[in-house]
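tool=predict chain=A
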Amino acid sequence: MKFDVSTLPAFLLACLVVVITPGMDAFLLLRTSLRAGTRAGLRTLAGVHTASAVQIGLVVSGLGALLAGYPALLQVLRWLGAAYLAFLAVQIVRGLLRPRPAESDEPVVVAHPFRQGFLSNLMNPKMLLFSLAFLPQFIGSGDAVLQLGVLGALFLVLAACWEGTIVLAAGRMSRRLQRRGVTTALDAVSAAAFLTISVGLVVA
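tool=predict ok
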């Protein structure tokens, strides 16, 4: 089995551009870390990248191409992803409408952060389609399965490092941003963003 290292420089450069471009995962991680602290953010990060590993695994095994060949199945995934994001937006709005306790310096508790990260990523077919379109461009003359597997792992490591930095930085600021006005504004922006992305998945 042969790995073609000549494609690595171009691949790493492309990865850097993709990784630092803000997306739904980064926004979810930022909100969770600012509202609930570093630990919840890291759990969400673990969920996001577990789902990413599943999708890249599908691409490496060939199942991803098979799934992409069935538009109806991808449409179902798109609708499920849109429904889940809409659900998150509704949950945030419900929290905004509830009576709030006195202000506290303690982080907010986020229920099931790993599950939120996992489902938000897994139900977004754009990650699967991106992997199908992006990774094969850098196979070169290497063994296809080995090349896809190594490149997919490198992409996950780079993404995890960048998003982990977001989590750690936001987690350090979370205690300073627990004032009611700040958290209310953050929740309102988060609900609007999740709803917008949900609508975007439906009309895409």
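The chain is about 75% helix and 0% strand. Residues 8-203 form one domain.
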